[in-house]
Amino acid sequence: MILIFLSAGCVDSHAKKNPDKSALPVDSVTTTAEKEPKVIGIGGIFFYADSLAATQEWYRKNLGIELNDWGSASFDSRKIDDPEEEQSLQWKPFAKGDAYFAPSQKDFMINYQVQNLEGLLERLRKNGVRILDSVETYDYGKFVHILDAEGNKIELWEPAEEPE
C-alpha cells in the first residue's frame, strides 16, 4: 500500500495560483517512502504502577484523567501546521511486571510517532539497533519495537493515513 502525503509548501503555492484548488500539481505528491525516515512526535507514554487500580484512581481523582475501555487516556490535539489533522497521545499505566515492556527492565516505555517506518527500520538495521519484533499493521497504523542503547524498549508507530 502506498500512502500519499501532500507537501504543505506545494499546496500553498498551488492554492495562490489556483484559488479553486480543483487539482494539485503532480510534483506536490510525496509517498511515504519518499519522506525522511524519522521521529515526528510522541505517540504515547506508558509506565508501571505498583498498584494499578489505585494509580488509575489517583490520576482520575486528582488530575481528572479518565480512562477508556483499554485502560488508557487519549490526549487529542491538532497539528499546528495543519489544523485539520488531529493527533493523539496515549497515556497508560500498566501493572508492575506486565510483559509488554519486556525485555526491558525499565519502568516505562515511550511510543514515538514516525514517518516512513520501513525506511527508519532500514537505517536502524544498518546501525545495529536491536529490533524486537516484526512490523504489525492495524487499521490505525503500523507498530514495531526496538531497544535503545540503555535497554529501554521503544515502540515506533506510523499512523495510518486518513482516507480522503
TrEMBL record:
Alphabetized UniProt keyword annotations: Dioxygenase, Oxidoreductase
Pfam families registered for this protein in UniProt: Glyoxalase
GO MF assignments: dioxygenase activity
PANTHER family for this protein: GLYOXALASE, GLYOXALASE-RELATED
Official protein name in the record: Glyoxalase/Bleomycin resistance protein/Dioxygenase family protein
